[in-house]
Amino acid sequence: MTGAGRLAALIREEQPCVVLTGAGVSTESGIPDFRTRTGLWAEYDPMEYATISAFRRDPVKVWDFYAKRCEVLATARPNAAHLALAELERRGLVRALITQNIDLLHERAGSAAVVEVHGSIRTSSCLSCGHVEPLDGVLELLRSAPAPACRECETILKPDVVMFGELLPPQAIDRAFDLARDAALLVVVGSSLEVHPVAGLPGETLAAGGRLAILNRGRTPYDAQAAVAVDGSAGEVLSAVVEALA
Ligand SMILES: [Zn+2]
Predict the structure, then answer these.
(1) Angle CA(209)–CA(178)–CA(160) in degrees, nearest 5?
(2) Which of 33, 34, 81, 202 has fewest C-beta within 10 Å?
């Protein structure tokens, strides 16, 4: 049986199924990932552009990085992998989707039960007065300035994404761990499972007696413990899974 066939069989047999996605699910939408040779961290030093202390030190510089990302993300379209996962949810075969991505593409593809553990670019917030600016407003502000300033108090806004050195949103991460523990099957898509605490989710599922499936380009530390580990294109494999489950 092909990798897609084995993955489809597992999803059919092991319910409830929860999905965990990382940057690899969005690369086919033209969004660069972080840790590969062509990833963002090869061009931008995360210590200078992605930590909360870097933001506090020089928010305008950090926005040089985020402004470009927001522009790409604002026009990015869901790919076959996002659409397949939304379809599996509609068919009742996926209970929820936990994502490390901030790009809103699962929502745009039609997934409803999405847990964003690293926040998203949906909004940016003022750390001084609490004003919240939606993405459209941020993009508008970026047209006339290198960094968006709060409309109320002119402090530079912070994108509501989790930066290194910040805690993950507690509600989202608690929900993610509950989902992982209750899952009969956790399907990991496009994550190399290197960033904690999200990298701990497969261990929660396994410890609670659930099974693990991995679809990723390249190896992960959990491959040996997975019932199925497929090295391939998320879009191609998940489209084939949807077809096999029709
Ligand atoms: Zn403000």
Answers:
(1) 140
(2) 34
